[in-house]
Amino acid sequence: MHILIIGAAGMVGRKLTERLAKDGHIGGKAIERATLHDVVEPAVPAGAPFAAVTVASDFSEPGEAGKLLADRPDVIFHLAAIVSGEAEADFDKGYRINLDGSYRLFEAIRAIGDGYRPRVVFTSSIAVFGAPFPEAIGDEFFTTPLTSYGTQKAIGELLLSDYTRKGIFDGVGIRLPTICVRPGKPNKAASGFFSNIIREPLAGHEAVLPVSEDVRHWHASPRSAVGFLLHAATMDTAAIGPRRALTMPGLSCTVGEQIEALRRVAGDKVVARIRREPDETIMKIVAGWPRNFAPTRAPALGFKAETSFDEIIKVHLEDELDGKIA
Q1: What pLDDT is recorded for position 284?
Q2: Which residues are catalytic?
Q3: Which pLDDT belongs to residue 188?
């Protein structure tokens, strides 16, 4: 089995690579080799039981996707993207990476032909949905994104379904919730504060909260995100049908409920490290985001996530802090 991960240096990509290196197999088949790609050179986990090649390039440039497919990987995880805040601020870059990059990857697969039909797992986003929202967004709600990032992901979903319909590859699109708690340093995503107000206080640092505590959002942990990817890569896709994009399960909660979960898990001293500092730009972006979902297709197909924010915090403590609170 040959695995290609595009976006392997990102947080989810690193977590996925580490999990594959730990397991050594996917869907009951041994992983013989992996190609790890990103715009910067990805890391290879120590002790990986398979041969790994790292590639650093811009996959949206003409010809680059074809190079990544030269050895015909069996499973392609397409995780590469310019995140929400950056895609909104840099219109050209967002479309070049999030749209042109995906299209060129799909076309490179088609160009091989000769019976080559890999499984393609595409990370989409709940940003494909736009207001006005129902109380909980079901699987039949239409996609009318109100950001450039959401538009780019929605187009990617349509391409994924059409190329799958034509038999070019076997695609599964997973609309990720906001992944929380993200380890590492803050990125340019407008959603970064959801993780910051948990991660930084747990590590002994101050965190800035730029929105009000009544802001509600949809979350899942990095551990769940990896689980979504692996399940999408190995499931029987005949059960999905022609609509290849699936809204992943998750947890809806307010910022205030996040903070109370942090209080239950870590105590008042840790919560006191959160500083309120309203940011009108972030507040405006967040106001157009979906708040709650009622997915039925993905859970019925075997996708699973946490059911409380306390669980999400405990996953972060276990996976990133060895269970220790600063």
Answers
A1: 85
A2: 149
A3: 65
